[in-house]
Amino acid sequence: MFKPSKLSLALLSCGLISASALAQSAEQANTASQQTANNAQDDQIEVIEVTGFRKSLIDSINAKRFADTVTEQLSADDLGALPDVSMADALTRLPGISAVRTGGQAAEINIRGMDGGFVFSTLNGREQVSTSGSRSIEFDQYPSELITEAAVYKSPKASLIEGGVAGTVELKTASPLSIDQDHKFNINARGMYNDRASEVQDANEFGHRLSLSYQGKFLDETLGVALGYARLYQPSVATQFIGFAYNGVKDIDLVDGDTDGPIYDDGSANPERDIDKEYISEGFELQHLGGEETRNGYVGAIEWAPSDVFKLRADAFVSKFDSKTFARGFRVKFGGENAAYANPVIAENAMVGGTINRTTKSFTRVETVNDDNQDFDEIQNYGLNLQWQITERLTADLDLSYSNATNDFRNGLLWALVAEDANAETPVFDTNVSLSYLLNGLDLPDVGFNQADAFTDTNRLMVSKYGIYPFQNEDELKAVRLDLQYDLDNDFFSSIEFGARYSEREYSNDRSLYQYGNDGAFSSREAPLQLTDDMVEVVNWEGDFSYFPSYLAIDLDSALAAWFPNGIPQPVQTWGANSEGVIDNNSSWSVLQSGDVFEKVVSAYVMANIDTEIGDIPVTGNIGIRMVDTDQSSTVYEDVGGDVSAGATPIVDQVGLVNSNYAFKRLGLKYTDYLPSINLNFRVTDNDQIRFAAAKVMSRPEINRLVSNLSTNINDDGEISGNSDNNPFLKPFYANQYDISYERYFADTDGAFVAAFFYKDIESFVQTLPIYNFDFSANGFYVPETIEDELSGVPVTVDPVGTYTTAINNEEGGSIKGIELAYTQIFSFLPDLWSGLGLNVSYSYTKSEVEFFTDLGGQTRTQSLPGLSENVLNATLFWNYKDFETRLNARYRSEFVSEQWGVNEQVVNFDDEIVVDMQASYDVTEQLSVLFQVNNLTDEPTQSYFGSKQFTGTTQFFGRQFYLGANYAF
């Protein structure tokens, strides 16, 4: 029976022990003297100095090898050792894990074909809240320099906090009492350059990264202190085309006397058609994005272990991520079905090209946009942990934690439109608008504008509207957890663990607005602003976009100072009212979409740890069950038509307007879940093992989907309908999942091979669907018995049964299944020069029968599960020789479904992508090393489409990021 001793595991984690030395049993290691153990090592092992990436890789392999669940591990030997910009980048190097890039960098991670909403995350074993406004953790908020360990649990155990159907990501910060030296300092500094920044006027080309850390032990190694600081300053750069969804229909086979008819994507002029109308897009955007992102991260920990039976740890992690960016260019509105369409090019019953002219009934226009966006994110995590060995067999772990996340996103939008003459006493909007375009799939489109010369002419272009639409979130979590472990003298179970946890979470979502002017024409009451030469600069497109027309970049501060000489009014949460004092629905959303979510969770578990033999095969693992009791609720404003008996009360907004039509309520539900799990590890030989895991898992719905925003409408015939994007009665996603894997670990820590198969049976998904024959009254909605016909004044009886479109738990469910292969090989058997050569490669194939429907590309199409790429490949080739180390990493993911960047609530298909990074470093001395790094080596763009590649979504280029720096450790 093979049981690694504490001594053996410690040596293995440093990559310094051979397989024969590992065969020494735990009992022998504990009873032998230190001198005897040292002599045995001298006889059996060849000491090899292992450092850098190779050591990190070996540590990760060994952590996976001896874990009690199906897991992937990532480790660093010190603070600042991981090279990645954030933990999002670092985690994507693990098998079965991919990322969605935002601004060119990984932000949200997907695990086994499931998006970030199914991924649960902890920091030092504690649940975290997110700045995303949902449950999905934005891992780019976490500097890799401040994290020393990361684990991805693909199979759960009862002691893990519930929440991850896809998996649970555990991040850990430094433990100062665990370091070898008494004191460790680390300084890391890098300069950064983006090679596309020169294409974006006013964008910054240079940035930097800086990290400082200290770990120390005092008072005979009973007191430990760790402090760390990491700063990232980088340009935010992108050049992009964004196509809009196909949300209109029109018969454009023959329009405006075009007797030749349309041209179809198959090249024919008039194929047989069974459908009378074609789908038309809302339009598209062409934009330059620039600005800067600044992230400051702080970590601290104090550990006190006055005896072998007691340890106290207090730690803190704070990250502030501020982004100040601009978006400039064009927003093209086709104008809906009332516009005039000529020479249409049709693909799959939708228009992908043609000429569009404004009519007296359409809103066809080209807006010059100069947007100013500010995003201020902050995460705070604090914890206090006490570990106490009460008796020889019983240990206790008490943990108190607090997590807070705030997000303040302020988008200031400035619209400019073409006037016939900007110098006129009363400028007139130029309605002579004609534009042409032709989509080219994933390539950039062909475009043309009859007003192109006016886009750079201050005698024609005028500012028509300014708006600010903040989106503010705060998420707060308080929790207390108690875990107990009792060691058993048993041939089957080594110990039993049990514990309980209580948490309170409160999420708030606040909307507000200020807007002045008109984005579709010139307002008679709010006159447009005439631009002067000192307010503007001409911007030319470069590179791939160089054939697009130039435009004016407007200095926001000077333009607004001229338009609002007494100061710019600030956004407010308001009902809004027109000149007659009637509530304005264009503003009331700022009140109705604001709200709070409250969540209380009580959980308890019991788990037995297995350590036995079946035949001659050692078997370890665990079996247990977790009980979870959830109480969730949300505030809601329900329109009860001013009926006081239904709870209507006067509600005052931030400017003093009173609305007495609504009742303020708190809605929600309680539910209890039982989540069993089992993990078994069969150690067939010293180097071969087979794992099996099975569990029931859950992921709660995104917390912002619980903010109720219900609304009902009763037409003149007394027919009722309702709509709500969210639902406070949503229950979690549930799945039964199974894992089996074979793991082969090579001798002398030279690598490993892992083959795994997984299967998830998903019971339900949250989808927004219509519910027919829905009884509004029976489900707690306010429904008046009658309404008065506006014209005749005659009472009309209201039917309480109608159609309610809302987010629901779709019970159809489906399966997700796949395989994962991982191979790591360090070629230490090669001649000296090449003995540091190594390869780390993983591949995953994921398939799901789950399908969703979308009509964003016109006709209804099926889409796969968001976040699912059938093929994900990750490969790293590395080599170190003496003081030099280099590695090349490539990450490939096939097409997948996710939310389109920059366009709210448009879930689209993203094309496959390959992201390549490289890094080289040289140790000048034992303390000083220098580094050169390139991220996105091939300048891979992000590209999306609506169901078919003929319907272009996003084409976005970010540029390459070059880093040059040094690391000093002592």
TrEMBL record:
Compartments, as annotated in UniProt: Cell outer membrane
Domain TonB-dependent receptor-like beta-barrel: 454-937
Signal peptide residues on this chain, from the entry's feature table: 1-23
InterPro entries: Beta-barrel_TonB, Beta-barrel_TonB_sf, Plug_dom, Plug_dom_sf, TonB-dep_rcpt-like, TonB_rcpt_bac
A Pfam family that the UniProt record links to this protein: Plug
Topology of this chain in the membrane: Multi-pass membrane protein
Domain TonB-dependent receptor plug: 69-167
Keyword tags: Cell outer membrane, Membrane, Receptor, Signal, TonB box, Transmembrane, Transmembrane beta strand, Transport
Family per similarity comment: Belongs to the TonB-dependent receptor family.
Protein known as: TonB-dependent receptor
Species this protein is from: Thalassotalea eurytherma
Gene designation: btuB
